[in-house]
Amino acid sequence: MAKNKYLFPLIIMAALFFLIGFMTTMNNSMIDFLKEAFGLDNRPNGQILKQLPNTFFFGAYALSVPVGLMIHRIGYKNGVTTGVGLLALGIVLCIPLVALGYIPFLFGVAVFAIGIVFLQVAANPYVNALGPAKTAASRLTLTNFLNSVATVIAPMFVSMLIISDGADASEMAPTQVQEPFMIIGGIAVVIFVVMFFLKLPQIKGDEHDDAEVPKEYKSSAFKYTHVWLGSLAIFFYMGIEIGIPSFFADYTKQLGLDFSSAQRTDMLKYYWGGLMVGRLLGIFILQKYTARQILTLCSVGGIVLVASSFAVGSSNAPLAMWLLLGTGLAHSIMWPTIYNLALEDLGPHAGVASGVISSAVIGAAILTPMMGAIQALTGSVVFAISCLFVYYLYLVFFATKGSKIR
């Protein structure tokens, strides 16, 4: 009965994860296009400026804690509806704002990013609660698989519908985003209307079918060390996941590979495709191995792939490129394993803790411009990407030591 009871809400959450993945990756995939369309290379600090789509988008996650507290009061269903509404509003605002300039357009991005924060904070603990605790990581991986399907589609959407109309940098205009954004905005408005009238069950953070013995919990989510260490893990993970596609175009240029802007963006589908395949496999892998084991293996795998890409770069540029794109497979199950470990055994504090953890997604807003500054200072994108080694090593620490409940 429990499975039937939770099936439809899980389908709805999976659809929202698709939407989250599409908008997140589309924003990141437009970095190279926006750089060319707004002529950022000709401006002072252009390497930092071109990373601002990450800053405006992921910076919204700084609101995750108050959003988590709000959702604790208004409920998951209202939180999700609010998120879809803000997402639709932000996309619609981007249509006129892009004609006003780079920064005005990014303010529109910030509005739909706040909607994504509502969805992210509400959806993860909701999925966590839709069934037995022992299969929570597997459910999160399933929904993240659909998220990954969207991340594969988004770069193709950008390369075909936004960039292709002006494949030559001199012909690119910022207003090329308007018609595609009209399509996405229309879809978002329809989803908002559906969500407004849809009835979803109210789920509490401590609701589990297999909870037979009442447990005692600390007075606040803020008193659990693994929540804070897990938040830092998400912070560094975002530098990893977003860092690769954000610097991929410059890395291929440094390798001497002659790609157009559309081709560089389209190639990212292989990176996001690796995440998609890995998350599909993760549904079954996480049934046999612990989240700690998988997170450790994936982090070490990422280190090996990036180091190997650097090692062969000077002698075999195509192989170096594919090794870097291959990190998508290593990154695939990191998010659900970190999230599951950070939310472990929190009961009624899961909603607030989700806000704390989700606020760490701001890592992509902070770390990518920092990496851009390193690139500008050193003149080499390799030095910027090398920051990932520090991020990976922290994830190894969290998996082996930091995630243990105190």
Automatic annotation (TrEMBL):
Transmembrane portions of the chain? 7-31, 51-71, 83-103, 109-130, 142-161, 181-198, 227-248, 268-287, 294-313, 319-338, 350-374, 380-400
Q: What is its main location?
A: membrane
Q: What does the function comment of this entry state?
A: Intake of glucose and galactose.
Q: Does the keyword Cell membrane apply?
A: yes
MF GO annotations: D-glucose transmembrane transporter activity; galactose transmembrane transporter activity
Would you identify the family this protein belongs to, as annotated? Answer: Belongs to the major facilitator superfamily. FHS transporter (TC 2.A.1.7) family.
Pfam families named among the record's database cross-references: MFS_1
- GO process terms (BP): D-glucose transmembrane transport
Q: Describe the location of the Major facilitator superfamily (MFS) profile domain by residue ranges.
A: 9-404
Task: Tell me the InterPro entries matching this sequence.
Answer: Glc/Gal_transptr_bac, MFS, MFS_dom, MFS_trans_sf, MFS_TsgA-like
- Keyword terms, alphabetized: Cell inner membrane, Cell membrane, Membrane, Sugar transport, Transmembrane, Transmembrane helix, Transport
Q: Where in the cell is it found?
A: Cell inner membrane
Output a single Gene Ontology CC term carried by this record. plasma membrane
PROSITE patterns hit by this protein: MFS
The protein here is known as Glucose/galactose MFS transporter
